[in-house]
């Protein structure tokens, strides 16, 4: 059987880091299994769904390299939902309910006030024909609930959480359709999973109770169950749920110059027993993905950890992987020289200006002026090859007796305008003899 996973965002906003992690894990499992990864836009909320959000979601997935094998849009599938809804009506698995949202809210508050779980009491099933007629005379139209089977416990083996068991009597019959005829998440998602042949549903642990009720919907529609996996939710670095996680998305990461593979390398391993490593390609993440590595503890997302991982990955990137993003004139030797000082590839432009100039030369003490004049004389007559920095510093050491910081720092300051930076042995040949002489004058 071909493995088929899906990522089903609602196009009512941009993807955030939690969405990206869910998409990635579904994508990794499909790729490892040689299966298919589908994108389904859950746009049943026609009022809030926007085309620009749908386009942004797809653009973000492409930037991350999470390409999909098929695409569906729920707003194109209303006829299918209607057909399956009629099936459930005919089999007695759904029923109309006439309570207003205010009445339901009051009942929940009463139950909570008594220390009882706020489970719907199925009052709608006890309505008489006269009561229903009276509601309709008032102009009320019903919303629709799925009737849970109370006779058997709901049990499944979760690929991450192990055996899960729910007593359906402790669950409310879920509302599946509003009074205005619009759909809620629960039933269309099941119908789509059946129709699209989804074999694995991987999502956050906040959906565990949804899974319990949806399992009965699969059964009512005489469909085989997919396998379910519920992973721990992301938390902030402080160890609790953070509103900031909801604002961190691809736009934020791109503005900060992060590499897509850095984001993927971190999110692939968060919440697992596997180490977070600076991979330069996605293949090791695919090969190592395994539900057995996932734990139950919250997965902590730390932007500082992501930045550090990104820096390590940048230091591994070959010239061919970044050449199109580098400033004009940066060749492979230039990249090798400045790469160890970068946190992001975008910073290459700042470091390359040290090579191309102009630089702000520092004020030097008189003895350092004499020292740099000697350096200029050596550069005028020495062979300017790849070993020129070693030649220069060795001769200066012999002539002046300087060593260590006193030898190297004045030279670096005059040649780069900085106290630190790329290795001067690599940098000086890039600066060139004429520019170096100019800076030492």
Overall description:
With 441 residues, this protein is mainly α. Among the domains are: 4-70 and 185-233, HUPs (Rossmann fold, 3-Layer(aba) Sandwich), CATH 3.40.50.620; 80-154 and 166-177, Glutamyl-tRNA Synthetase, Domain 3 (Glutamyl-tRNA Synthetase, domain 3, Alpha-Beta Complex); 366-440, Orthogonal Bundle (Arc Repressor Mutant, subunit A). The protein is built from 19 helices and twelve strands. The strands form five sheets. Strands 1-2-3 form a three-stranded parallel β-sheet. α7 (208-220) links the parallel β9 (200-204) and β10 (227-231). α13 (332-338) packs across α18 and α15 (366-381) runs antiparallel to α19. The longest helix is centred in the first third of the chain and has 16 residues, at 17-32. The chain starts with a strand and ends with a helix. The model has no long low-confidence stretch (mean pLDDT 94).
Number of strands: 12
Give the averaged pLDDT, no decimals. 94
Uncertain spans: none
Tell me which CATH architecture of the domain at 4-70 and 185-233 applies here.
3-Layer(aba) Sandwich
Q: Looking at this structure, what is the CATH superfamily of the domain at 4-70 and 185-233? A: HUPs
Supply Rg: 32 Å
Shape: elongated
Task: Tell me the CATH topology of the domain at 4-70 and 185-233.
Answer: Rossmann fold
Q: How many angstroms does the end-to-end distance come to?
A: 74 Å
Beta percentage is 5-15%
Q: What's the CATH class of the domain at 4-70 and 185-233, please?
A: Alpha Beta
Strands side by side in the biggest sheet: 1-2-3
* Approximate helicity band: 40-55%
Total helix count? Answer: 19
